[in-house]
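The authors assume throughout that readers already know how a fold can be written as discrete tokens. Each protein is reduced to its one-letter sequence and a matching series of backbone shape codes. I therefore recommend that a typical entry be quoted early in the introduction. For illustration, here is how one protein appears when written out as sequence plus structure tokens:
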Amino acid sequence: MHIAIDTGGTFTDFVVSGKGEDLLTFKVPSTPDAPASAVLTGLQRLRDEYGFSAASFDGILFGTTIATNAVIERKGARTALLTTRGTRDVLEIQRLWRPRLFDLYIQKIPPLVPRRWRYEVDERVGARAEIVEALDHSSTSDLLERLEAENFDAVAVCLLFAFLHPDHEKTLKRLLEKRYPGIAVSISSEISPQFREYERSSTTVVNAYVMPAIRDLINQLENGIARQAFRASLQVMQSNGGLMSTLETRRFPVRTLLSGPAGGVVGAVEIARSSGLTNLIAMDMGGTSLDISLCQDNQLVLTSEGGIAGIPVQVPQVDVHTIGAGGGSIAEVVRGALKVGPDSAGAEPGPACYGRGGQRPTSTDAAVVLGLIDPDYFAGGDIQLAAGLAVTAMERHIAVPLGLSVVEAAAAVVRVQVANMVNGIRAVSVERGLDARSFTLIPFGGAGGLYAGLVAAEMGMGQILLPAHASVLSAMGMLLTGLKYASSRTLLTVESDARPGLFTTVFDELTAKVYGLMRDEGLAPEDVLLTMRCDVRYRGQAYEIPVECGPPFDISRIVQDFHHQHRLTYGHSDPAESIEFVTFHVVAIGPGSRFSLLPLKGNPALPNDPDRHRSIFLDGRHLKVPVYARDRLVSGQRLDGPAVVEEKTATAMIYPGHFATCDAFGNLLVTTLDGGDCEKD
């Protein structure tokens, strides 16, 4: 059996699965100040409450937001940056593009490393990998003494063209680790051996900045797991949708920045595939944020141009758009206008209805006031919500300032929240030239199913898939993936100089690296799926298009594939134009799927019989709405809106004019009668 654990800003989710067995799911409140505590509490609960023995588990899979939060909140390590003389201010200069073209008061994102902590090294490597100036060991020794006086926790090293000639960086790393044992050192030739100086510097700095916190977390988890007598190995979810060992996590914590969201997208893709759907927009709504990802043809969309909090990170990651629209998003009146998010109440103190001291109303409080959430069955009854506190907070902070009744104020909060969510979906679809109406919306997370119907109606989307176990889908996704290691190298080569032998040499070098990592995990090359690609562009272009390639390397075919991909992407191509091969990539994927989606068992419950009814405020009036238990639905059962579907850790709403059909796996396919065209498989 395996345990998958996803640590979010509000709750830590647990999913336990064995081959051919039902899933066990539960949540414990997250402990942001001590993330390992919630995980170890949940593991202890598995033994004490559910009766599992520690020896019965083969593996523990873990997703974390600690690196993400450290960057967003700027609470990472005290970090220095060493760089080639003359390039100290690359982090400050950044790029010329403006994220908001007409904003006259736009401010650049401040670097994680202030200027006084950025140091210049006397050395120089040229663009052809030649040593222009050897590393000056005398000045380097003086520099190390200066670093000692500042008492840094981490050091990032990013020298010019180190991705072509890494010896100087490796020397500095060796000297730093010898002089300051235990210090966290990151060098760009290991973290991001690719060109583009700003992005490479930024990625290396982020890795160093979060390394001490991730190291401490992994150490605490491994020690705690051992104390509880678990012999299962610990693996960590990466931003690219795969798992990695704790050893690699300690070296490359930057790869965990989108750990949780990546698991959710993997889970959504597998759920969609089981339901015969190929194009989807995954919408993960947790307590703190909303993560949105678009997938076509059941494929994860990866990008190397992502980032977090405006800081670029040059590692492969699931293409996720994140906004501050979660269940804990705080509602407030600002200059007479209602605003929801991006500030969140988080796990502590949480929404007002949690009764932990939160005073300001949130999206969750609005759902309680409207009757969308049963305060006696939140998190399966593990958490009792105080509806009166939600009403009081909504009245004081929203209803009175806007001159509305409490339920009208709560409905207004929901409308603003939905508008924020719609803007997020437009960012990954309409703004990229794609018609959202041709996609199926898959909401998950604890709050996703509450608002999906309203979002789909606003976007004109005709179909919604409400997955079973929606609130823990990010953890489920970890059970559906395997180890995944990638290796990259920039080697700028013009078309006239490209030879099959060059491709063979570069890809052999990269393949040896990923095979070595897999062998360390006990996997032979024949157990690993290997993919190769090269980033290609027309000469003079600023950005590249990835093109799949593999032995035997036919240069003319790769060129033709690039022209074809360029035409599909930009609507035109120029076969007469010379091209450049830029960065080479190899990805190795180990076997995954630690459980299979199981069809519903026979169920004696009568179809269409609700468990009970409750009053919900919808469309400006109170309605008596049927409430169905998710685990009593049968395959083929139809539910007509308005209706509520409850499971232990999530609630879904089927709105008036919509109807849902339960499929063989317990997922609900919702049809919005006035929705646009959607895929029909």
Observations:
- The longest helix spans residues 197-227.
- The chain has a mean pLDDT of 90.
- Residues 8 and 65 are 6 Å apart (CA to CA).
- The chain has 16 helices and 34 strands.
